[in-house]
Design brief:
The complex is a heterodimer.
Chain A lengths: L10 H20 L9 H20 L7 H26 L2
Helix pairs in contact in A: 1-2
Chain B lengths: L9 H32 L1 H8 L4 H26 L3 H31 L7 H5 L2 H37 L8 H26 L2
The chains are: A mainly alpha, B mainly alpha.
Chain lengths: ~90, ~200
């Protein structure tokens, strides 16, 4: 049933989101040239995760979607996160 | 409350799309995990091999995908506002972005292949193990991403045709929403592929 109220997101909000995403991309590209060696990977991953979060929240409408969906997304990311941690724990302490 | 068909379930349709997206996340997630472990094992080779990639083309494709994601999201708003013309223009821009991405990829891969940097080439067989792994992962991950991009473009093409025919309108637009979700997934994957393959040196 589609009795839920329609949320029409404005064009200007999307445009602002795009600008933020582009700024973050520019930072990712320039960051490695700063030679922070050990932190390069960390910075790249933090920025990529931030961008992914913005895309999920605004472009994929999680901000206005129902709670069930949000919980499901968080659960899947949690599962994937634990797989990463377990795999690395296994690999490093083998 | 407006008239809706009894057998219609837009929320269910969207939920199904998300479940599918979860499986896609785990599919690419597995590949990212392989990448992470191999990178951990062969840091030097991965560092040198990733220098072979063209950061400019990678950045350009990032930009193209981000813009296309925005236009898809906007096209949903346009459909909700009954602005058929705007929705058409926005989706055409998206499809144009997909074509630009494909052309870039053609030149990028073409250049790699002309340098014999592809899995199984004579040159590749003589390189160090980490190099081979990096380029195998590079071609496989970007290739699988490319396949998703082509499928996404086809779905959006269908959505565009349906908008023109009036089959997708301000009451019925779940196909466009789901197509959009798929397109954003393509964008999401690239958001991680780009820094991991092109930038981390």
């Amino acid at each position: 049933m589609t009795t839920e109220e329609k949320h029409i997101t404005s064009y200007s909000l999307y445009a602002r989101v795009l600008i933020i995403l582009m700024v973050l991309t520019a930072i990712t590209i320039t960051a490695p040239s700063l030679n922070l060696t050990a932190f390069t990977i960390l910075i790249a991953l933090v920025i990529a995760s931030t961008k992914a979060g913005i895309v999920l929240t605004y472009f994929m409408h999680l901000k206005i979607e129902n709670t069930l969906l949000r919980i499901m997304v968080i659960m899947v990311l949690g599962i994937y996160g634990s797989v990463i941690i377990l795999t690395f724990a296994d690999y490093i302490y083998r | 409350m407006e008239h809706t068909e009894p057998d219609r379930d837009d929320i269910g349709a969207k939920l199904g799309m998300w479940v599918f997206i979860f499986t896609e996340i785990l599919l690419f997630g597995g590949l990212f995990l392989v990448y992470a472990i191999m990178r951990h094992r062969y840091p030097e080779d991965f560092h040198l091999a990733s220098r072979q990639l063209n950061t400019f083309i990678g950045a350009l494709n990032t930009l193209v995908l981000l813009v296309s994601s925005m236009t898809v999201a906007m096209s949903i708003s346009a459909v909700q506002k009954k602005d058929k013309r705007m929705a058409t223009i926005l989706l055409l821009i998206t499809l144009l972005c997909a074509v630009i991405f494909l052309v870039n990829k053609y030149f990028e891969w073409g250049h790699k292949i002309s340098l014999s940097l592809y899995p199984g080439s004579d040159l590749m067989m003589q390189l160090k193990h980490g190099y081979i792994l990096f380029f195998s992962l590079y071609f496989f991950m970007t290739g699988l991403h490319l396949l998703h991009l082509i499928i996404g473009a086809i779905i959006l093409g269908v959505a565009l045709a349906k908008i023109r025919l009036g089959l997708i309108n301000d009451q019925h637009y779940v196909l466009l929403e789901n197509g959009g979700l798929y397109w954003h997934l393509v964008d999401l994957i690239w958001i991680f592929l780009f820094p991991l393959l092109y930038l981390i040196t």
